[in-house]
Design brief:
seven-stranded mixed beta sheet, 18 helices, four-stranded parallel beta sheet
């Protein structure tokens, strides 16, 4: 008798499919109540940081250059108060084989899949991670399937996502392109079950362990170059893995005083799962449509427990507008002679604004760049935006309204960040973590767990719970 492959039946087998496809029993990390042992899950990969570095170097991954952006620093100082304008550095992750830091994640996942005897890997992603998995699968002789959510119901797809599909196919992957909606996760589960391939999810501990080498390497390079660790590192934040892994690596290097700043493109008001709004945005990752929900509830990912938990590490969370990122992308090319893709330039635009607040002798690092290609360039992105009813204007980015306009700054002095209220984000996390248990008394273990998850003390958590009870 053939297996029931209906939507309801496949979704009901979700836990069983995931366990088989990741080769990891997440139940072993669950503790009492809402608690799970995060550090036990991370060490449960069986790979130390030294192992991760060895695996990546054997796969031609990592050891990317760290460049000082002297001309952008000079430009920032022109618009900063006297004595202000930190030195800006960039970690050029575009130098990796697939053109982004995501290959650090993929190197560990694909290595692990091959070690366990899987014949292929599958990843559901519309970002650079697809190309990263495809690249590593090609290098290690595994089959590869990439699922992309790339079209609206009219079959219109964003140039950047189409570009990434071409990149995956160039590495020999089979690319399954879907329209926006719930079919992505169902199709993902069905393919995992039908093929028996490894789930090379962005959110497994293998993937996050792979990013730790980035933070570690960055800290070591800066210490060797300047004799000190950076004062601040800006990380483009989407699903939280980039920030989590980088922060863990920095701390393993000893850079405990470095401020960890998350930066996302402001897409407030747009719904990522909306067919009508799907093509109203010009950025497919590194935006608040992923950054906020995955920070306030990490376990919404495609594995039972996400290893990407940004609230454990983030010191400051800022947003920047689409027009400001486009402007900085052009500036990087025309002032520094480096042409790179949009995701890393999100944190670069934020770093440019933050550098103006910092002292001249301080150092701020943008921890990634990404490759660029035909669909990632500014011209096709802005043309697509116009085709979808978005006004492209020159003016003050403060007039930016996501889904209605893109404001290119009149001058670089107008580039500025918005600070998000981390306590408000912590409150949302606590609400999600309690799953409606507002009338229950938390155990000591549960209270300690929320303190670790949010980096808040028990008084703040108790205050939030009381506020939630009164709402």
């Amino acid at each position: 008798m053939s297996k029931d492959m209906s939507y309801a039946a496949v979704m009901a087998r979700k836990g069983e499919i995931m366990k088989k496809a990741v080769g990891l029993d997440y139940e072993q990390f669950e503790r009492d109540g809402i608690v799970f042992d995060y550090e036990a899950m991370m060490t449960g990969t069986g790979y130390s940081l030294e192992d991760v570095i060895d695996i990546q170097r054997a796969s031609c991954v990592s050891q990317t250059p760290l460049y000082e952006m002297k001309n952008l620093t000079k430009l920032a100082r022109m618009y900063a108060a006297e004595g202000k304008g930190a030195r800006i550095f960039i970690k050029d992750e575009a130098a990796n084989p697939s053109g982004s830091f995501k290959v650090r994640r993929a190197a560990i996942s694909v290595h692990h899949a091959k070690k366990l005897g899987y014949k292929g890997v599958i990843a559901a992603t519309s970002g650079n991670y697809g190309a990263a998995v495809a690249s590593q699968a090609a290098m290690h002789g595994l089959d590869c399937i990439i699922l992309q959510e790339c079209y609206d119901s009219k079959g219109k797809g964003q140039p950047e996502i189409i570009e990434k599909a071409r990149k995956c196919e160039a590495f020999g992957a089979e690319v399954v392109q879907l329209s926006v909606g719930p079919e992505l996760f169902y199709t993902f589960l069905r393919l995992l079950e039908e093929t028996g391939y490894f789930n090379a999810s962005l959110y497994t501990p293998f993937g996050i362990a792979g990013v730790e080498s980035l933070g570690y390497e960055l800290a070591e390079q800066m210490k060797a170059l300047e004799g000190k660790y950076p004062d601040a590192v800006v990380v483009t934040n989407a699903g939280g893995g980039n920030l989590t892994g980088t922060a863990r690596g920095l701390k393993k290097a000893g850079a405990n005083e470095t401020e960890i700043i998350g930066a996302s493109v402001d897409l407030s008001g747009l719904h990522m799962a909306s067919d009508e709004q799907f093509n109203k945005k010009s950025f497919t990752t590194g935006h608040t449509g992923f950054g906020i929900p995955f920070t306030t509830w990490p376990d919404r990912s495609d594995v039972p427990r996400s290893a990407a938990r940004p609230l454990r590490y983030i010191d400051r969370y800022v947003t920047i507008s689409q027009g400001e990122v486009f402007y900085m992308t052009e500036s990087l090319a025309q002032v520094e002679g480096m042409e790179r893709g949009p995701a890393g330039n999100t944190s670069l635009a934020a770093a440019f604004a933050i550098a103006k607040e910092m002292d001249e002798d301080q150092i701020i690092v943008v921890q990634e760049t990404e490759y660029t290609g035909a669909g990632k360039h500014i011209a096709p992105q802005l043309s697509f935006a116009k085709e979808n009813g978005i006004a492209v204007l020159v003016g003050d980015p403060k007039d930016n309204i996501p889904g209605q306009n893109i404001i290119l700054p009149e001058n670089p002095g107008l580039i500025s960040i918005k600070n998000l209220d981390l306590n408000r984000i912590r409150k949302s996390y606590i609400k999600n973590a309690l799953h409606g248990r507002l009338d229950d008394t938390l155990s000591a273990n549960e209270m300690n767990y929320i303190e670790e998850e949010t980096r808040a003390d028990s008084d703040f958590i108790s205050l939030v719970i009381n506020e939630l009870r009164s709402e």
